[in-house]
């Protein structure tokens, strides 16, 4: 399952190292199967944050960031969960997501460069990652909302401590504004 203690994984614990009678170094190791509790604890370390949105009746889209930074998308539709898919990226923040119309959504995250990046679903396919710029602090996930078709607002914590706000006005992304917190 990709976690450090996934199926078939074994733990090796080094108990001690000493010099034997012939002057050789020996190591006592204990090799063991990880306990269910250890597996559960390690699986909790896999994800960085979580966000979800619904763009219509009977639909849920969940997102999380794996420890390698890849954004994962998991959708529920037509009564069952689909297989999770990787949307790539190298996020260092939890994701933020909003739906702005039926079968339309946009997901956001801060990358290592401190900029906000986004991908959007147009009803048919995911578009590639796009930088929206900024000088952001990844300690806080970006949050996004929409008040109607073709209007998106996204907020993120700036490294300056201000709330940074950017919005899509239906034709373009309007430049960042800094708001007091």
Describe the fold and architecture.
The structure is a single chain. This protein has 181 residues and is mainly beta. It is built from one helix and 15 strands. Strands 3, 4, 5, 6 and 7 form a five-stranded antiparallel beta sheet that branches. Strands 8-9-10-11 form a four-stranded antiparallel beta sheet, with no helix packed on it. β4 and β5 (71-77) form a beta hairpin. The model is unreliable at 1-6, 10-19, 26-32 and 37-42 (pLDDT under 50).
Write the layout of secondary structure elements.
Elements (H helix, E strand, L loop, with lengths): L10 E9 L5 E8 L3 H9 L2 E7 L6 E7 L4 E7 L2 E2 L3 E4 L7 E6 L2 E7 L5 E6 L8 E2 L11 E6 L2 E7 L5 E6 L4 E7 L2
Antiparallel strand pairs: 1-2, 3-4, 4-5, 5-6, 5-7, 8-9, 9-10, 10-11, 12-13, 13-14, 14-15
What is the β-strand count? Answer: 15
Q: Which shape, going by the Cα principal axes?
A: globular
Distance between the termini: 41 Å
Share of β-strand residues: over 45%
Could you spell the SSE succession in H and E letters? EEHEEEEEEEEEEEEE
Rounded mean pLDDT score: 83
- Rounded to the nearest angstrom, the radius of gyration is 22 Å
> Would you identify the regions where 5 or more consecutive residues have pLDDT less than 50?
1-6, 10-19, 26-32, 37-42
Helix content: under 10%
Number of helices: 1
User: Sheet bearing the most strands, described?
Assistant: 5 strands, antiparallel
Q: SS-based structural class?
A: mainly beta
């Amino acid at each position: 399952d990709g976690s450090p203690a996934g199926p078939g994984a074994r733990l090796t614990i080094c108990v001690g190292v000493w010099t034997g009678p012939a002057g050789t170094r020996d190591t006592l190791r204990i090799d063991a199967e990880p306990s269910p509790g250890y597996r559960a604890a390690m699986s909790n370390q896999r994800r960085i944050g979580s966000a979800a949105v619904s763009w219509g009746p009977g639909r849920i889209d969940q997102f999380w960031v794996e420890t390698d930074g890849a954004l994962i998308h998991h959708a529920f539709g037509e009564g069952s969960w689909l297989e999770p898919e990787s949307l790539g990226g190298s996020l260092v923040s939890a994701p933020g997501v909003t739906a702005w119309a039926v079968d339309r959504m946009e997901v956001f995250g801060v990358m290592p460069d401190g900029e906000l990046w986004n991908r959007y679903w147009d009803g048919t396919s995911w578009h590639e990652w796009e930088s929206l710029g900024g000088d952001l602090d990844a300690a806080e996930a970006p949050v996004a909302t929409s008040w109607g078709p073709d209007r998106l607002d996204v907020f993120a914590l700036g490294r300056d401590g201000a709330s940074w706000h950017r919005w899509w006005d239906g034709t373009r992304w309007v430049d960042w504004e800094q708001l007091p917190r």
